[in-house]
Amino acid sequence: MSAARAVLVPFLVTRALVAVVALGAGAIVPPSAAICRNACDASSIAILNVASRWDGDPYLTIARDGYRADNPSLVAYFPLYPFLMRIGGALVGSDDAYLAAAVVISNLALLAALVYLARTVMLDHDATTATRAAVYLLVFPTTVFLSAVYAESLFLLLAIAAMFHARRREWLLAGALAALAALTRPFGAVIALPLVIEALRRPIAIRGLAATLLAPATFFAWLAVLWLITGDPRALLTAQAQWGGRPGLSLQVFADLFDPTIYGFPYVVLGLTILIGALVLISWRVLRPSLAAYATAVFLVAISTGSLTSAPRYYLAVFPAFIALAVIAPGWLGRAYVVLGAAIGMVLTAMFAQWYWIG
User: Fold this and answer.
1) Whole domain around residue 277: which residue ranges?
2) Are 11 and 138 in contact, with CB atoms under 8 Å apart?
3) Which of 98, 133, 249, 325 makes a 20 to 30 Å CA pair with 315?
4) How far is it, in rounded angstroms, from Cα 198 to Cα 59?
5) Angle at alpha carbon of residue 239, lines to 237 and 244, rounded to 5°
6) Is the pLDDT of residue 98 over 70?
7) How far is CA 197 from CA 166, 167, 176, 202, in A?
8) pLDDT tier at 359 (50, 70, 90 boundaries)?
9) Is residue 22 part of a domain?
10) CA nearest to 322, candidates 86, 132, 44
């Protein structure tokens, strides 16, 4: 079975379900009063409207107007995704065109990421395991972000593709993809870690080690650009602080889970954190060191932002966790995960569509 055939049906079924639930919620679920006292619709087109909640607005602003010194909080959002939105919507130039481009980019990137995920799994396992890994990712409860106006799918595509081509020792392509990942999410340069581990395998690949420098170099180059735009050498940290980010690993983030003014559903956040953390540990036993190291690094980043309010979304980037789950849970445990994940995912999708915070 080809990688594309292994993932196409799960992709189509889950994306259709996400769209139906989001549109249905938009029609029948009351919106969050805290957010929607004023007009909160980004588009008159229903599917674009429900897909553009929360971070959709900053991405739309950047795609339309670019980064500006008088709006420094926007530099928390990295440039590749809104740049592609601008290209995709440039012909028409309207907000709807930019949002439509964003939804298309997210979903095409997701499909390509799933193909790369299946191809990566097939390097070590069979096609059935590859399909399970794709399904397990697609039914993770925060799956709505993979199709919304968010950069999650684009980052997944670049990270998985970089790892795949590193495995094939296609170093220049792997390094270029890692560099693009560094322009997609603030923690994108982490992809350099598994590339270094692959390059250090016997025989050591000097070209591979050189290619791994592209991601951190691109990251620091972007920080320099932000300094020029804002005049603030710490522009990224300043912007993250404006959005409530307090980088650092602290037990306080777990204590905050049970503060009702911060979290409306702490047990879901805690449960997903325990699940992904356990799978990260298991990945060291069942996956290659490079994949396990990447999973560990991204998981630690996700729980080190000073809050777990966005962690359930960040866990989507920990793709080796879903591979590990596919390896260890081929039977009833995997089916139970699919049913429970899909059920919670439908609830969270409906909440997202009506401006309730889910990550």
Assistant:
1) 3-353
2) yes
3) 98
4) 34
5) 90
6) yes
7) 10, 10, 17, 10
8) confident
9) yes
10) 132
Mean pLDDT computed over 190-201? 94
Q: Which helix (H) or strand (E) segment is 173 a member of?
A: helix 171-182
Max Cα separation, the chain? 62
The answer for 168, left when phi > 0, alpha when psi is -120 to 50, beta otherwise, is alpha
The conformation of residue 247, written as its DSSP 8-state character, comes to: -
Interatomic CA distance for residues 118 and 127, integer angstroms: 7
CB 143, CB 349: distance < 8 Å: yes
Separation CA 310–CA 243 (nearest Å): 11
Q: How far apart are CA 118 and CA 133, in angstroms?
A: 7
- pTM, full prediction: 0.94
Tally of domains within the chain: 1
Answer whether 115's CB lies under 8 Å from 7's CB.
Answer: yes
In our burial notation (b when 16+ CB lie closer than 10 A, e otherwise), range 264-273 reads ebbebbbebb
Distance (Å, whole) CA 240 – CA 306: 11
Q: Is 359 part of a structural domain of the chain?
A: no
Distance CA 2, CA 269 (A): 35
Residue 50 inside a domain? The answer is yes
Asked whether residue 358 is domain-assigned, the answer is no
Express each pLDDT in 127-185 by its tens digit: 999 999 999 999 999 999 999 999 999 999 999 999 999 999 999 999 999 999 999 99
Which residue do the tokens 């799933």 mark? 114
Tokens found for residue 350: 């409906």
